[in-house]
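FAQ: What does the model actually see?

It sees only this:
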Amino acid sequence: MTPSSSPDAWADLLVVDVLDEDAGLAEVEDSRGRTYALPAEWLPGVADGAAYRVGGEAGHLTFIPDPTGARELRERSKQTLLDFADEPGDG
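And it is asked to produce this:
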């Protein structure tokens, strides 16, 4: 399966939640709130909490380290929680 080159098809930011060196996998969260595992070897300088910008072109993905990405993802998550509010019921 070839990744779509559409900018909307992939998240633009990944943050490593857990690095499992024995399995060679990095569990990541993306800027859309999805979590999944990637081969750790795909992520340069991989470590817990490391963040990466994702780029795609001609069926290839690139992962570029972003030192401020983890903070940005936390801020997005906080804003999402602030934007969510239950409507009070009438009865």
